[in-house]
Design brief:
- This protein has a single domain, classed as Mog1/PsbP, alpha/beta/alpha sandwich (Protein Transport Mog1p, Chain A, 3-Layer(aba) Sandwich).
- It is of the alpha+beta class.
- A hairpin with a 4-residue loop joins strand 2 and strand 3.
- The chain has a 7-stranded antiparallel beta sheet with strand order 1-2-3-7-6-5-4, sandwiched between helices.
- The chain starts with 7 loop residues before the first helix and ends with a helix.
Amino acid sequence: MNRLSRNPGLVAALALLSGCVSLKTPDGYAERSRTGEYEYQAISTDASVIAVAKYDNEDEDKGTLAYWAEAARKQLVLSRGYTFEEQGEFHCSRGPGRWMRFARKYRGTDYLYLLGLVVDGDEIYALEAGGEKAVFNKDVPRVLEAFATLN
């Protein structure tokens, strides 16, 4: 264990200074290095995944949390074949957020997908998590708690 990992306050301060995205990784998940489009990613031993991506919010006046949540819900339901199940709200250090839960069957297996959104001025944070319903369903409460730790 290195000195940084023993000092979580210092790690959080460095993350804020460097503009990094952080999330408190739930038990049963291990973080991965930054990969592709994601600022943060963690994977469970059951192959469930949590990831955070950051996008530019080019129209801060119209690009509100309500707008992006509705746009994402419609895209997932109308274009990608997901079934919307429920939604809720959370709050993190970057502001208020909204989460939505979706379901989809793929090749005979039921999957769950959680999408959390936070709009912080000119930045949009998309928090994604999902996996096979049979194993991921038990993780949903911990994942939603993790969404609220977005920093």
